Amino acid sequence: MPKKSTVFFCSECGFESAKWLGQCPGCKSWNTFVEEPVRETQKVPGAVRKPGAGRRTASSLGEISLEDRDRLPSGMAELDRVLGGGIVQGSLVLVGGDPGIGKSTILLQVCRSLAERGTKVLYISGEESLKQIKMRAVRLGAFAGDVRMAAETNLADIRELIEAEKPEVVVVDSIQTLYREDVSGAPGSVSQVRECANVLLQVAKTEGIAVFLVGHVTKEGTVAGPRVLEHMVDTVLYFEGDRSQTYRLIRAVKNRFGATNEVGVFEMTAAGLAEVTNPSDYLVTGRPEDASGSALSCVMEGTRPMLMEVQALVCRTAFGLPRRTAVGIDLNRVNLLTAVLEKRGGLSLASYDVYVSITGGMRISDPSMDLAVLLALVSGYFDIPLSGKNIAFGEAGLAGEIRGVSNVNARVKEAVRLGYTQAVIPRASMHNVEKEYRPYCIPVSTVREAIRLLPGGNPREGAREG
Ligand code: TYD
Ligand code: MG
Predict the structure, then answer these.
(1) I need a surface site. Which of 163, 299, 427, 429 has the fewest CB within 10 A?
(2) Measured distance CA(294)–CA(344) in Å, rounded
(3) Is the minimum distance from the CB of 139 to ligand 1 under 6 angstroms?
(4) Dihedral of CA 216/217/219/225: which sign?
């Protein structure tokens, strides 16, 4: 029988199979198998170690020392925060995001600021020519330090280059353009991406070089190529935000050296990405005054509280079936909250279309947003604007109860800092609020209680109390 010359890989998790499969047994995703040429395994000389040769020793935890030099500041406090306090030497960081969102821009800015402080950096681009990078650099303004550049895609050449240049930080833009000659498959294929990342991992770990890998994302929003890439690296940063809007969020989805879900907020300007140090202010400016259907909430993005606006439009449906639309928040959550309002709040929304949107293009999955969504819906339904000076947060339960949330004090503090004088919060969380901030809080325990806070927002008679 002739030897099989192709093999199938799951493009999600890298699962290998001899034949095509509809569903991946590894990650259970459908229709992800891609065919790739089989790779001959090469015998690496010395791979099989003789017994006793080069015996390894273990160290005790107390003996391992940490130095300050182990973390390099990236030059942007927002990025340092996401990285957990700076760039860790010998770390492998994956930076993912939609095309054109600013991956190359931010990494070039990081290179510039590192070089200015005397760190040796090497920027390897497989996508753009040196001229194109230069054009971007010109847009960013003056470069005082020496940023070394190379346009390379062959991994062997890149290794040689790294050996010759001896940089402390390397940027590879992007992992999907690299290839290894000894690995079959086109650049960007599952096996190429995996094997190239593996080599760069070795480089990072053995030589103590911090390596940034740019990764393209698929339609589904994950880094193209195998998910194993995410397992392999130390830190995964994702760019979020809309390309059509100027702000960008960088979120740490995974971080071996810091908190996950930490976000940094940036704004795309004519001269690169600028840090937004006060995102709450940024997100709520331009809020319409005296408009019904708008409510403010304070959600936790990583360890930082951020004020956010939710808007709801409730209008009579023109067709038999009411429409439910959500932007920036899970539609199922909105459906659930409308059902809670219907059953526990006494509002009849069956003949109303409901549109809910988080402004500023943010995407929220924190359930503490529930109370603000409920209040925005009620305000929109009765066409009564909420007071411009209050915020609300709390998770809603199906019984119509408002449940306690985390970091209550930090949220109230942030609201007060920005001049808001009333915070509608879950009664269960009241004991977590410091004395100083208690006068600002209005505790509620049910949806109905929250609705009564609205001027004229009395729930109809007949509905059962939640
Ligand atoms: P880029 O960083 O190349 O995105 P990626 O590497 O993620 O594909 O480009 C980001 C976009 O930002 C691009 O459309 C041009 C724009 N831009 C600015 O608005 N200002 C700038 O200073 C720069 C360099 C780019
Ligand atoms: Mg780019």
Answers:
(1) 163
(2) 21
(3) yes
(4) positive
Q: Which residue has the tokens 């809020």?
A: 287
432: burial class by Cβ within 10 Å (0-12, 13-18, 19+)? middle
Nearest-atom number in ligand 1 for the CA of 214 is: 6
Alpha-carbon dihedral of residues 168, 171, 176, 180, nearest 10 degrees?
-30
C-alpha 238 – ligand 2 centre gap (Å)? 14
pTM above 0.85, yes or no: no
Residue 315 pLDDT: 92
What tens digit of pLDDT does each residue of 390-438 get?
899 999 999 999 999 999 999 999 999 989 999 999 999 999 999 999 9
N-terminal to C-terminal alpha carbon distance within the chain: 71
Strand-pair partners of 87 = 72
Per-residue pLDDT band for 40 (boundaries 50, 70, 90) equals low
How do residues 51-105 score in pLDDT, each as one tens digit?
Answer: 555 667 888 888 877 665 578 999 999 999 999 889 999 999 999 988 888 999 9
Distance 328 CA to ligand 1 centre (A): 24
**282 contacts: CB under 8 Å, gap ≥ 6:** 247, 265, 267, 276, 360
141 pocket-lining for ligand 1 (C-beta < 6 Å) = no
In the reported structure, the alpha carbon of residue 53 is separated from the centroid of ligand 1 by a whole-number distance in angstroms of: 52
Distance CA 91, CA 70 (A): 10
